[in-house]
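Priority: medium. Attachment 1 of 2:
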């Protein structure tokens, strides 16, 4: 595939994820938007690695590292979502301005 197309796709996906993370109120939608942003970053890393690297192994390593970070972020985020649902019965971020026990 064309490098310009793949990098443009990564920018579009990152922009959609950024819009969702900034302007949505549901916590799960925000988590999915963050995941979309991380996957767009992976696409850009792999594309740049295949274009400019010799074997592409460095880009695959960094993409794997980003996937590990994304998995950690999702597990912590879902744990927070479960606790939010138990505490207030909804996942609206505006309801949780203060973190009280």
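Attachment 2 of 2:
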């Amino acid at each position: 595939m064309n490098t310009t197309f793949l990098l443009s796709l990564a920018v579009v996906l990152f922009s959609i994820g950024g819009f969702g993370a900034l302007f949505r109120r549901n916590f799960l939608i925000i988590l999915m938007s963050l995941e979309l942003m991380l996957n767009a970053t992976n696409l850009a890393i792999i594309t740049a690695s295949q274009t400019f690297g010799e074997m592409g192994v460095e880009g695959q390593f960094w993409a794997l590292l980003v996937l590990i970070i994304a998995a950690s972020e999702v597990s912590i985020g879902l744990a927070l979502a479960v606790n939010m649902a138990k505490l207030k019965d909804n996942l609206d971020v505006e309801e949780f301005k203060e973190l009280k026990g």
